[in-house]
Write a structure and sequence with these properties.
The complex is a heterodimer of chains A (496) and B (982). By secondary structure, chain A is mostly helical. Chain A is built from 18 helices and nine strands. Among the domains of chain A are: 193 residues, Serine Threonine Protein Phosphatase 5, Tetratricopeptide repeat; 67 residues, no CATH class. Chain B is mainly beta and 982 residues long. Chain B is built from ten helices and 53 strands. Classes of the chains: A mainly alpha (496), B mainly beta (982). At the A-B interface, α1, β1, α2, α3 and α6 of A face α8, β28, β32, β33 and β39 of B. β1 of chain A pairs antiparallel with β32 of chain B, so a sheet runs across the interface.
């Protein structure tokens, strides 16, 4: 009996020491510990920039596919990936181009997810930097980034859920009107852009310095009428002038044998964005930081293989109506190629169909603006992507002046851009259509076209394969899954 | 001191031995044979002298020789599956003993959790398959041996890729993400399905499947999906054996898809305006080039022996499989040794097990192809245009740069290195001490180590475009796991008058550690070193994800108690309670309780049943229990964590990017499964017809799933939480009918059928005040999780026709002029589920003199399958770059925007899975051979189905049955030899 009691007692003691079921973490950091360290807060800010580079899965501003860039380019008249009669390519892009998207459209959903994850990341950075008493310029930078994402959100989706602190319940997450969010963005930018660093390049390459901040503010003002009903051309002009204080100039456009496509102009879209003209760009190094697929996606296999040694995707084409607007002397027209190409490829300028039976394998002109920069592979190249550059600011100045009735004042701005492209200045003071067309020539494939078409009232007009469409298409639907997950959300008009 | 005592013990035993030899002189020898009622020898039957522990065992011919002292009066003869028998020996020197299985179904000993029970005492739903009922023939996994043998246990083999093990579902899909794989227990060692790899198929004594919660609750939080207990063969005391088993089979392709040949392709190509430039003027049957007859061998040698207090058994087995796709094979070598020693005046029993396996797989790549079609290598053979040559004129592999990501399947099969392997080890030690009469204290410890590696090299010459881009990609991964288990238990047994009581108290501690690493290099100047020298790659090409490692661990602490009580062998009660604490759960919910209770009533023992002649046995069982599930959870799910996510550019340089990798949920808790079971075991017509019926209803609540949360404010669209509920209910019936039982001839007809109804009861609710609205979650091709419907319910557009330009039209169900393909689109309709509603098997057995034959027919139905592969190979728009099925010609489809029910097919099938014919040689006069049996086995001989794909057995048991091309399921013919040496 004594033996048993000893056994029981020792067993009991053993139980005491062996009832621990705590969790050990070996290969990750607990979020609370991680962000409270000084490096943690810096990393939080860097993490927001990681959201900007484009990558697989429809994430990022530009560089990859099925995300924000495609949503805002394919629905315009500048580019589309047609379904091919060889069975290649899904119909998503043709649906965008023809304005047939539904609330279940995958790219509409991807962009929403990307933007809200970005806002979560920016909120986190603001919170962590504030807690860590970081330099005011860094806190301001995180806030400007957050304003950037909200601006992109209202541009695409209109009235959207709004929050600035991550620790929030869904009842405290109202869907704010487009105007309310617009007002927030303006307020946040006017308060914080002044605090940003004025340094260009180096540490600030690919980041929001003061000049990039003003460029963003100018963009927001430029579209104020669309967002809030009230135009703000003077404010836009003022913000553009602030950008000019940064000392930017147009990159030369001259012919140069060692430049992509034979012109210095195309260095703007190369591996490193030139400092003279670029205000903000996305640093890209394929497979390491994002990717740029806007070369490889367009070209047919043997063509890409002959030029770059990789297999092209035979995707994006541009309609001949768009290309034929370019003057033949315009060096910017060189970005489009058709006819006989290296690798024995012969692209036709005409496209018979975008869906059924689909375009022929070699149908459609291809864009080579982002002439693949090394390192490169079949998954893309390393061209940095310009978000804002000085030519855009000049054209915005021109537009504001025209809209304010100072067409004559607008002329020098637009002429600078034309002359750099190898053209003569305009014969007369620019009209709104002149500005619109010039924006098309200068900024093709850079993510501005949908916004421009809407602001210039061109978006709903019939063109090419696209019929005239109803006004509700100027805003995208809120994705179905977002509505399902949050019953407080209201769908945009026209999509119910 | 110690030494002195040992010396004395040795001296004493020597004296004892001497005395024993002296006594021999006064003994006499009894020769005898043990056979069953059919005159088959009962090998291994134990023969002991009544009133002593001395005895022997019958050899494989049923013969024995026993030296008995003059004082001996009677012998006790016993064997598993037969009634114990006592025989007075009087002055006889030869005996012929016939053992009788009194009621075949209700007498066996059944292994239940942490112990054994007599089958007649069982109160829960347990299926037992003893080694003589295991499916014969070439098997590469023990699961194949129990396919079709137990009602409600569905073994699913998808394809015959070398080394690919089947999956199993016990009473349906019990969890969505928490894991539906049963717990596997091999001789007390608990583990996952990989444990089967370490068991030589020929060394299995019995397999017990615990199905209902009153049986599985003893395994608490690991028992929810059911438990499979494997008991391996042990040697009997006083008997030596050397046994050799070998099986060799030729494996053939049973079915391949019918695609166009070169001539037909060109005919159609002209019709669909495919340019002549796409015709490369060859005539290639790529499928034929990539396939050949496979060859599977199983060899096993086992030997063992024993003395009165000691026995051991050791075996080595080899499973060697050469696949039907070129360059695919699998080798698995298993060694095990098992020993038992008694000591301390037989009060202490020590049992040791050591089990090791080394396996190696050369696989054909599992995922290759073009962006438009990615599948395993062999399915790419269907895609290849029959007019494409394999080689260019200069001897290089043919490839077509005009086709995006073109691959030459033959080049892939020849040039890609894809090797994986594992070496696993488990050992256990068990000590049982008889403390008092009826009270046993036990300690059990087991340690399992697994080491798996994989190497992959994709050279540029393979024609795969990513390999060309990167000039070769090589990677190696290593994964290690350590699983340790220790338990301490007290077991008490007492019988007084009509009462029998058995109680168990147990403490268990389990800890598991998982570690691994992965490394990859790209850019090789040549392909000589494949994945063996990553440093030969271009190190400037290293990208995020090329190097990684991980480590995590988990532990589980359990206290459990169980009481079995029976009164007059008539009324039986079992109750158990287990309390588990698991580290992987949220801080607020670490512990859970898992109770169960069951009762059984043996009506046939009642006095009022005494005079009836119909029922020879009748037992009613009712049970209820709660089990949990946490094993499917990965560690660290409950906390918000930060991990690296590639590289970002900041501050003028590339730096590591960190992100929050998951939403936090500190309330993460057990998934609980409550199951009620009512069963009836019966034997009628003098035991010639016996069987069981079970009805069960199981609800999984706190269902673990990645529920949709609103984004914003969550950074991810889903969170792992316990919200929903899942229902499985069903009826199982198994029957065994001894139709003929003569002296030379027997015919037994057995079979089982189970019906299963599965429902997703709830997917919504709230977590931390956030309302969750999860529904219509994609679960495979056009199949979904929908509240109120079965898992994997097809919600699909309805095919209408094909219009004049060859485009598919579908029914606009809500007539709004728009076809919406969203998950919840009103244009979709419910078209059945991928989960079979019924499964059944028929297993007749026949023997005549030395011949025996058995069959296994099994099938399932009531489900649909989505034939993705047919959809891919039926559109003529693809003709310019790939081949199509012959069946595409009458269909005439050029293109489609939709995934529709055009590709949805009936998944019912009946498979003639096994036919085995054996002959046992008469070895009475052989000096060396005790038994010799040869056999011929056919596997997968025929499949009756309307499914047009390669094989209707798909999906691996998760309820998502899309067919994107599988490794073919082979038909095999095997010859087998079983020899037992003297």
């Amino acid at each position: 009996m004594k033996k048993i009691s000893i056994l029981l007692v020792s067993a009991f003691l053993l139980f005491q020491s062996c009832t621990k079921v705590d969790e050990n973490i070996y290969d990750k950091y607990a979020a609370t510990d991680f962000y409270s360290s000084p490096t943690g807060s810096d990393v939080a800010l860097a993490g927001v920039y990681a959201q900007v580079a484009g990558n697989w899965g429809g994430v990022g501003y530009a560089g990859a596919d099925n995300g924000w860039y495609d949503l805002n380019c394919m629905s315009s008249d500048e580019q589309v990936v047609p379904h091919r009669n060889t069975g290649d390519w899904q119909l998503d892009f043709a649906q965008l181009y023809k304005h047939e998207w539904l609330p279940t459209h995958s790219i509409v959903g991807n962009t929403w997810n990307w933007l809200y994850k970005s806002i979560f990341t920016a909120n986190l950075a603001v919170e962590q930097l504030t807690n860590a008493n970081a330099e005011p310029s860094k806190i301001a930078e995180a806030k400007v980034l957050r304003a950037f994402f909200y601006y992109l959100l209202i541009d695409d989706y209109g009235s959207v859920p709004f929050y600035t602190e991550n620790n929030i319940t869904i009842e405290n997450l109202p869907q704010k009107s487009r105007k309310e969010v617009f007002d927030f963005v303006v307020r946040e930018l006017t308060e914080n852009v002044v605090k940003l660093s004025a340094t260009k390049g180096g540490q600030y390459y690919g980041r929001f310095n003061k000049w990039a901040g003003y460029a963003l503010l100018a963009k927001v003002y430029l579209n104020a009428e669309v967002f809030s009903g009230t135009p703000m051309w003077n404010e836009c002009l003022a913000a553009c002038n602030k950008v000019s204080e940064g000392g930017f100039s147009l990159h030369p456009g001259a012919a140069n044998a060692s430049s992509p496509l034979g012109y210095q102009y195309f260095e703007l879209f190369g591996d490193v964005s030139p400092a003279d003209e670029t205000i903000l760009s996305i640093y890209t190094r394929v497979d390491i930081v994002g990717r740029n697929i806007y070369g490889v996606r367009n070209l047919l296999g043997p063509h890409a293989n002959a030029l770059f040694g990789v297999s092209g995707w035979n995707g994006t084409v541009t309609h001949r109506n768009y290309i034929e607007k370019f003057d033949n002397n315009d060096i910017r027209k060189k970005q489009f190629v058709w006819g006989q190409q290296p690798g024995g490829v012969n692209y036709s300028l005409d496209i018979a169909s975008l869906d059924n039976p689909g375009a022929d394998r070699e149908a459609g002109a291809r864009n080579m603006k982002f002439y693949m920069a090394a390192p490169l592979n079949g998954g893309g190249a390393s061209n940095d992507f310009p978000i804002y550059r000085y030519a855009d600011i000049l054209l915005m100045k021109a537009e504001c002046n025209v809209r304010l009735g100072n067409a004559a004042a607008a002329k020098p701005f637009i002429d600078q851009v034309r002359i750099r492209a190898g053209l003569a200045g305009l014969a007369a003071s620019p009209t709104l259509d002149d500005v619109y067309n010039e924006r098309g020539f200068e900024l093709t494939f850079e993510g501005h076209r949908r916004q421009d078409m809407i602001r210039f009232d061109k978006f709903l007009l019939a063109h090419d394969f696209t019929p005239a469409t109803a006004a509700f298409r100027k805003i995208y639907p809120i994705p179905t899954f977002a509505l399902n997950a949050n019953k407080n959300l209201k769908q945009n008009p026209g999509y119910q | 001191m110690k030494l002195k005592r040992m010396l004395r013990a040795m001296l004493l035993s020597m004296l004892f031995l001497a005395a024993f030899q002296q006594m021999m002189a006064q003994n006499r020898t009894i020769r005898g044979s043990v056979s069953d009622e059919k005159n088959n020898p009962v090998a291994g039957a134990s023969i002991t002298i009544k009133g002593s522990s001395a005895g022997t065992a019958a050899d494989s011919s049923g013969n024995f020789l026993l030296i008995v002292p003059a004082s001996a009066k009677a012998l006790a003869i016993s064997s598993v599956g037969y009634n114990n028998q006592e025989i007075n020996i009087g002055s006889k020197t030869t005996l012929s003993i016939v053992l009788i299985p009194p009621s075949q179904a209700l007498t066996d000993v059944v292994v239940v959790g942490y112990g054994t029970a007599r089958k007649k005492d069982l109160t829960g739903a347990v299926s037992t398959i003893s080694n003589k009922d295991l499916n014969p023939g070439p098997v590469t996994s023990p699961l194949q041996q129990i396919a079709g043998k137990a009602a409600g246990v569905n073994v699913i083999q998808v394809g015959s890729e070398p080394g690919s093990a089947p999956g199993v579902r016990i009473r349906g899909i019990t969890s969505l993400v928490g894991g539906s794989d049963p717990l596997v227990v091999v001789d007390g060692v608990q583990g996952n399905m990989d444990l089967f790899r370490q068991v030589p198929p020929t060394e299995i004594e019995s397999v017990d499947v615990l199905k209902d919660a009153s049986a599985t609750a003893i395994y608490g939080s690991r028992g929810a999906p059911g438990v499979i207990i494997v008991t391996t063969k042990k040697n009997r005391a006083g008997r030596s054996t050397v046994e050799f088993n070998t099986t060799a089979s030729v494996d053939m392709i049973r079915k391949k898809l019918d695609v166009l040949n070169a001539e037909e392709w060109w005919q159609q190509a002209q019709k669909y305006n495919v340019p002549a430039s796409e015709n490369h003027a060859s005539n290639t049957d790529m499928f034929d080039i990539l396939t050949l007859d496979g060859f599977t061998q199983n060899h096993a040698i086992a030997f063992g022996g024993g003395a009165e207090k000691f026995n051991y058994r050791a075996s080595v087995a080899a499973i060697l499989q050469k696949g039907i796709v070129i360059n695919s094979n699998f080798k698995n070598y298993i060694g095990r040794i098992q020993a038992t020693q008694k000591a301390l005046d037989d009060k202490l029993t020590l049992t040791m097990n050591l089990n090791s396996n080394i396996s190696n797989t050369i696989g054909s790549p599992a995922s290759v192809g073009r962006a438009a079609f990615t599948s395993n290598l062999i399915s790419n053979a269907y895609v290849a245009r029959p007019t494409d040559p394999v080689f260019n004129a200069d001897g290089t592999y043919f490839t077509d740069p005009n086709v995006f990501q073109y691959i030459n399947p033959y080049a892939v099969s020849q040039e890609v290195s894809n090797e994986s392997g594992a070496n696993n080890l488990f050992g256990s030690l068990r000590a049982d001490v008889d403390v008092l009469k009826g009270l046993t204290a036990s300690w059990f410890g087991s340690w399992r180590k697994t080491n798996a590696y994989a190497g992959y090299y994709l050279p540029a010459i393979s024609t795969v475009s990513t390999a060309i881009d990167n000039k070769g990609i090589a990677n190696i991964s290593n994964n290690r796991a350590e699983e340790r288990l220790m338990d301490i238990s007290l077991n008490y047994k007492k019988t007084f008058r009509h009462h029998r009581i058995e109680a168990l108290a147990l403490y268990e501690y389990q800890t598991q550690v998982y570690q691994g690493n992965f490394a990859q290099a790209k850019g090789f100047i040549n392909d000589i070193t494949t994945f063996n020298a990553l440093q030969n790659g271009d190190l400037s090409k290293v990208t995020p994800g090329d190097v990684s490692s991980y480590k995590n661990d988990r532990n589980l602490v359990s206290f459990l108690g169980r009481i079995n009580y029976s009164f007059s062998d008539r009324y039986l009660v079992t109750a158990s309670l287990r309390r588990d604490g698991a580290s992987v759960l949220g801080v607020n919910n670490k512990w859970g309780n898992f109770p169960s209770a069951s009762v059984a009533w043996r009506l046939s023992q009642e006095s009022f049943m005494e005079h009836q002649k119909i029922f020879s046995d009748l037992k009613l069982r009712v049970g209820y229990g709660v089990t949990g599930n946490q094993q499917g959870l990965y560690p660290q799910n409950s906390t918000q964590l930060v991990g690296s996510a590639g590289v970002t550019y900041f501050g003028g340089s590339q730096i590591t990017n960190f992100i929050i990798t998951q939403n936090a949920n500190s309330d993460l808790k057990w998934e609980t499964r409550k199951q009620a079971n009512i069963g009836l075991d019966f034997a009628i017509m003098n035991n010639s017809l016996s069987g069981s019926v079970d009805v069960f209803k199981a609800t999984t609540s706190n269902l673990l799933f990645n529920y949709s949360v609103p984004q914003p404010p969550y950074p991810y669209g889903s969170i792992l939480a316990n919200v929903g509920r899942l229902l499985n209910e069903g009826v199982e019936l198994s029957l065994n009918y001894r139709a003929i039982k003569g002296k030379d001839i027997t015919l037994t007809l057995s079979g089982n059928v189970s019906f299963l109804r599965n429902r997703v009861l709830e997917l919504s609710g709230s977590i931390n005040g956030v309302p969750l609205n999860t529904d219509y979650v994609g679960w495979g091709s056009n199949s979904y999780l929908i509240k109120g419907m079965a898992i994997g319910t097809f919600n699909v557009l309805q095919h209408q026709g094909i219009n004049g330009v060859g485009e598919q039209t579908v029914v606009d169900k809500n007539k709004d002029g728009v076809i919406d393909q969203g998950n919840q689109s009103p244009d979709r309709y419910i078209a059945g589920s991928s989960v079979p509603k019924y499964t059944y098997a028929f297993t007749p057995y026949f023997s005549y003199k030395n011949f025996d034959a058995s069959m296994l027919w099994r099938g399932s139905g009531g489900n649909k399958l989505y034939n993705d592969l047919r959809s891919n190979l039926s559109r003529f728009e693809n003709l310019g770059k790939s081949n199509v099925l012959t069946s595409a010609i009458p269909l005439g489809l050029f293109t489609t925007k939709y995934g529709s029910d055009l590709w949805l097919e009936n998944g019912a099938f009946l498979r003639f899975d096994n036919l085995n014919i054996g002959y046992r040689f008469n070895t009475k006069n052989s000096k060396y051979i005790e038994a010799l049996r040869v056999s011929l086995t056919g596997n997968n001989l025929a499949v009756i189905t309307r499914y047009t794909g390669i094989d209707p057995e798909l999906g691996g048991g998760y309820g998502s049955a899309g067919d994107n091309g599988i490794y073919p399921r082979t038909r095999s013919i095997a010859a087998g030899l079983n020899v037992i040496f003297k």
